[in-house]
Fold these 3 entries.
Entry 1:
Amino acid sequence: MRVLTIDIGNTAVKGSVFEDGTLLESILVDNLDPIPFFPFIEKFHPDGAICCSVGRELKSFLWEVEHWLQKPVMQLSHETPLPIDVVYASRNTLGLDRIAAAAGASIVAEEALVVDAGTAVTLDIVASNRFLGGNISPGLRLRFRSLNKFTSRLPLVSPTGDIPVFGYDTETAIRSGVVNGIVSEIISAFRATKRDHPSIRLLLTGGDADFLAPLIREHGEEPEIAHSLVGKGLERIYIHAINHTINNYNNNAKYNSLPSDI
């Protein structure tokens, strides 16, 4: 089965086609523009599709994609049957992208700290096919923009450039504070998690994964970059939900066909 997965984040939309767990190809779109998906769909002819969104308005986008696909796009929700257990007090407020990443991570590793580094940085623990919870903090660019917006004189600084331990001017002071702060945050959480889960692996995904990975390695840890984690999880959820629906239908049909005197 070929499944089109659509991961709609705060700043970008990622489309991927998987076939039996293998990623065939991905595209990245800057906004909710369905047009780049049309040749992508024509190339792979997916058997089904699923999307998750951080909360953006999807009606027009999904209508266009479904029209071209000639199939409905399943939307991941908190009511969708899941192939993993979610141990989280406020399950209905849990980000759908975090659920998808956890479903993908549990395929890759028995135990993992999943770091999704994008507009926000999420750090989630996944162990024995269970989502156990995690943390949320601002991402790199959000921290840079906040310092610029909510102060009167601090400039907007890029993440790229010299990153000393301590800055030697305003630009490097901001860059070092933001970048080293996020790196330390990830390392601290990972080492704390290893106390209860000694075999846990550190999986990085999201737009800033490639940028952060070498900086984390400088501190002696070995993060694994997993860019397709959310898509892999969405494919798994789609197949699980389809099978769940089929099983329910078959069970109901069997029950309804029983003689009335039983």
Entry 2:
Amino acid sequence: MKRKTVDIITLGCSKNLVDSEKLMAQFLEAGYDCTHDAPNPKGEIVVINTCGFIADAKEESVNTVLEFAEAKEEGRIEKLFVMGCLSERYLKELEEEIPQVDKFYGKFDWVDLLKDLGKKVEASDIRCLTTPRHYAYVKIAEGCNRFCSYCAIPLITGRFISRPMEEILNEVRELVAQGVKEFQVIAQELTFYGIDIYGTPKIAELIEQMAEIKGVKWIRLHYAYPAEFPMDLLRVMREKPNVCKYLDIALQHISDSILDRMHRHVTKAETYALLDTIRKEVPGIHLRTTLMVGYPGETEADFEKLKDFVRKARFERMGAFAYSEEDGTFAALHHPDDVPAEVKQQRLDELMALQAEISAELNAKKVGKTLKVIIDRIEGDYYVGRSEFDSPEVDPEILIPKASRRLRKGSFYQVLITDSSDYELYGNVVEK
């Protein structure tokens, strides 16, 4: 009998990706053939894992659902299911507006999907990796207790819930056994990890124990919060050679008035002091941050402070986005969206142009240095790899000419950097 095929489409962040990987494992156990983000999905069943974080992400999710709702009407697919953040937040509205969807699931009840299809599959943490087999994402918690004024995540995911430490460590051991070498540790806010279970922050202990597992070559951390930062984590990053000198810490702004309106619980002075401490305690660390422009009440003076911050901090990695009002947040209820869209875009463009200059200067300083690089894929005439300072999907990559020698995906090489651009490096493998 022909096996039914399922296409799973993941939108949004790597935390959603982990959920999709768990769902794929359940479908495979139930006897389905399963693909993920296929270029032309043709399965009898399509599952869309949606994002509901900001306006652009919600629009992409809705448009994707509508596209496959049309495919179902035309008989090109049999069943359509939707899960994730968007349907967690707007379940009733979506059910009314898009009746072609067989069922909407939220952020957590998607584990019932196979049961609703009449399949007996036990919920578990087993995953079918969609990433290259040498790296994986490890989600250590769900939810967030920070309640920043602009952010809908606590409204979608609820309060912060840590996974037990031994459960996480067992998952890492299982992934190592499958050939995974590099681990991206993720949470909405990983610096809060452990407080709800153990009464005190445990992120440093978790990472230290993870680093001691044989076969773990790289550990990289996403996403830290600046207030009440667990300083003992810096010792672990400094002392453990397989903990990458890399930290993703979303700072959002630097103006005290904007930080206060955002409910960030940190000041300009505290932010500068924290960055100084991190860089002193972990020499050579590369910091990634995210900044926001156009928050309600942001003046030209506030924006000038933000630009000055970027110039002084010289982040190795930086992203930015324009504020969008999110239903139900404190900002939407109390801070009118008074910065015109064209001003937001102008400020965003200006900030990213400034960062491009900084990135080009920092990259140029790597020319002549030798970096440890893992190879992800082949693209055109190049092998594409990353150093410990580069997270998959979001950071610069290192391009190595294919003609230089044969390289293996998932293997590490010493690479001499020979050239640079704003966001890429070029190099050649150093012969042993």
Entry 3:
Amino acid sequence: MPAPPYLRHDLNDGILTVQVGGEWKLGRPAPSGCRDAQRALEEPGLTALRLCAGDDLGAWDSSLISVLFHLARTARARSLPIHDADLPQGLSRLLTLTLAVPSKEGSERRAGEKGLLAAVGGMALRLPAVCSEVLSFIGDVACALARLCRGRTDMRRQDFIAAMHECGVGALPIISLTSMLFGLILAFVGAVQLTQFGAQIYVAGLVGIGMLRVMGAVMVGVVMSGRVGAAYAALIGTMQVNEEVDALATLGVSPMEFLVLPRMLALSLMVPLLTVYADVMGIAGGFVVGACMLDISPLEYLSATASMVSFRQGLIGLTYATVFGIIIALAGCYQGLRCGRSAAAVGMATTAAVVQSIVWIIVATAIITVICNVLGI
């Protein structure tokens, strides 16, 4: 019967000697001496680590390599010399090979998930660094805008036009569908209560004011976050993986001016225009409900919309839309530029861009709404 695996350690004159023996096979529980040796290796006063094999060392596989690797890596992190001459030649070569190749970040199996308090504490500790990074990114964008105003920028006109086409003309079908359906829904919801008082005509004002003041801009912002913000993050993130962003910087081309600036300007211009289009489509959806289901004549519905909806509502909606366009562009480009160097990192950057865009759109909506209420507009 094969002998069970064991691991013993002995500390003498600052040298920690670790001896392994028995038969090491995957599936068998690790000897309790592994944890004791790991703790002993973290004690102060050590000068070296010596690895040796007992005379009864039998068959072994990667389970033994894994144990020795963790011990050797801890010793190397403490700058301790490692003596493995007393190991079998094949085992010593494999250990040397595992130590020669650095492990990739995130490739190791986690020992356990952090608790809620640990996760919240870690986020709180990372918050200052994240805020500093975001403010630095916004500052770089501001510097790029200043260079654009002076006519000394790396932004190409054709990139700006292509970005406008991508986030403008290409988004018309989905904006048409969502805005018209939202206008229909808004009219239906208003009609449920208003018809009880014979005030169906106020559905026109409800839909018009709701779409022009805030809901048209919010709908466009959410749709563009998923359509354009994610595309920006994926595009720039893929360029990071392929080291194309580094190549631009090496050639003396500013990635902020070449990649971020045209996309931000395009979104800042096209989102307000798309919002105007979405407002029209939303009013058209409400018109369908009012004319076909509430027995309101088309002329009466349009006249009520024109009398109840003021031009000021449209200006407030355009303010929302401009802010949303800047938020979407900044979130998508920021996540793309800070993307890691793997395919998984591109996916995470894309998801983070969409989530952050929608969250900040909601926050900006609340802030602008409060400001408008305080100012009485």
